[in-house]
């Protein structure tokens, strides 16, 4: 028997095409293809949608099983929904009306940490599953686990106030935040982590190891674009895909590109992505770095998901230079889907996804000199590209990943269930 599944994310990919939203929506679609009744609800706020008086729900498209939940009153530090008087009754009505067997939560931003307990009170027998896509409950610095000023990463959540660089907040508030979040998450029946690294961080933080499993993400099946025809030349075109922000390492990549230009290395770098919601200081820094790189670096700008195959067809390598503990970057799966080897920071989930020396290369994070050296080696060594690209494996198919989720859900609903 297929379970009825309510999928909750902190936005909808049509409004905010982040990796979590894309994966959550792809998984929702796979649930439906597997024969399940499923509903997708993305929380949103006035950054993407104005509030419409009279209802908390809004249509996102013509589908009857997808909607938005306007949740614009959110305390980011405490991960708390500050307008429960308005939010709780409307969401309670949805829970009672649809009565799902499983609520699959993909994020609590905008929803609020109160959400799991609300679900438990309204539906005592419903199974609550939460995929932990990042470290937001652990770290109030947008879940980055990195110091805002020094860019130093930290593995443990101890002394978090000092480690994340949030000023003006009393130390006891960090402790109270942790206690409150962990207490609310106790009602979650099962946690899923897309990487071993992320699972370990949450176990260190206090999640019961018996309640958290590793479940890797997947991608919808797609035909790989042909590898670039390099003729007698070198496979020396590199691509960066994703928004530009202080933690994605775009500035590190541009610094490395300056070094390569000064050394007269024959390479081309195509940087795809916009700079949304960044400070004036960061925008000025990025603009200045682009001006200094010369003609070998092309600023391609923002792109749509549908553009990925065409853009990927024009590069030989994909670079993911993030300086924070990325968990399961969508761009790595997109690169592997199209047979492109990946140069990535050898930390976090990135180090798990890319096998160093096999289908990509690990570099030290936040180190432009080493990144420049590796790019030079890759740009001048066609045998290396041939070896690594030949070992690239496509990511797991999203329908296969959905089946793994469904086996787990059925077992949770019926402990005597045995998968065929």
TrEMBL record:
GO terms for molecular function: glycosyltransferase activity. Keywords: Transferase. CDD domains: GT4_ExpE7-like. Residues 17-218 form the Glycosyltransferase subfamily 4-like N-terminal domain. Pfam families: Glyco_trans_1_4, Glyco_transf_4. SUPFAM superfamilies: UDP-Glycosyltransferase/glycogen phosphorylase. This is Glycosyl transferase. It comes from Thalassospira alkalitolerans. The lineage of its organism: Bacteria, Pseudomonadati, Pseudomonadota, Alphaproteobacteria, Rhodospirillales.
């Amino acid at each position: 028997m297929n379970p009825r599944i309510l999928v909750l994310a902190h936005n909808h990919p049509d409004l905010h095409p982040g990796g979590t939203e894309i994966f959550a929506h792809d998984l929702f679609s796979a649930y439906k293809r597997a024969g399940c009744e499923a509903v997708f609800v993305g929380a949103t706020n006035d950054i993407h949608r104005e509030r419409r008086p009279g209802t908390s729900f809004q249509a996102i498209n013509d589908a009857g099983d997808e909607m938005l939940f306007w949740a614009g009153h959110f305390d980011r530090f405490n991960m708390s929904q500050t307008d429960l008087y308005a939010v709780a009754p409307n969401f309670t009505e949805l829970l009672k009306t649809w009565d799902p067997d499983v609520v699959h939560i993909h994020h609590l931003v905008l929803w609020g940490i109160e959400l799991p307990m609300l679900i438990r009170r309204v539906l005592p027998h419903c199974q609550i599953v939460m995929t932990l896509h990042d470290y937001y409950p652990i770290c109030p610095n947008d879940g980055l686990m990195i110091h805002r000023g020094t860019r130093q990463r930290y593995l443990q959540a101890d002394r978090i106030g000092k480690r994340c660089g949030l000023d003006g907040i009393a130390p006891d508030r960090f402790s109270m935040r942790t206690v409150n979040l962990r207490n609310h998450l106790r009602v979650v029946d099962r946690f899923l982590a897309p990487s071993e690294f992320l699972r370990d961080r949450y176990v260190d933080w206090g999640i019961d190891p018996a309640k958290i499993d590793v479940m890797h993400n997947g991608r919808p099946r797609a035909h790989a674009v042909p590898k670039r025809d390099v003729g007698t030349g070198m496979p020396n075109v590199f691509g960066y895909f994703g928004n530009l922000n202080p933690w994605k390492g775009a500035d590190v990549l541009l610094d490395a590109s300056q070094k390569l230009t000064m050394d007269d290395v024959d390479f081309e770098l195509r940087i795809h992505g916009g700079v949304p919601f960044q400070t004036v200081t960061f925008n000025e820094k990025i603009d200045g770095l682009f001006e200094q790189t010369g003609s070998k670096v092309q600023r391609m700008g923002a792109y749509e998901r549908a553009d990925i195959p065409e853009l990927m067809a024009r590069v030989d390598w994909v670079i993911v230079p993030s300086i924070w503990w990325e968990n399961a970057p969508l761009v790595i799966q997109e690169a592997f889907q199209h047979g492109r080897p990946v140069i990535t920071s050898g930390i976090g989930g990135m180090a798990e996804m890319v096998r160093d020396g096999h289908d990509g290369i690990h570099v030290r994070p936040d180190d432009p000199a080493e990144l420049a050296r590796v790019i030079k080696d890759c740009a001048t060594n066609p045998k290396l590209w041939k070896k690594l690209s030949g070992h690239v494996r496509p990511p797991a198919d999203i329908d296969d990943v959905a089946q793994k989720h469904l086996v787990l859900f059925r077992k949770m609903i019926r402990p005597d269930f045995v998968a065929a």
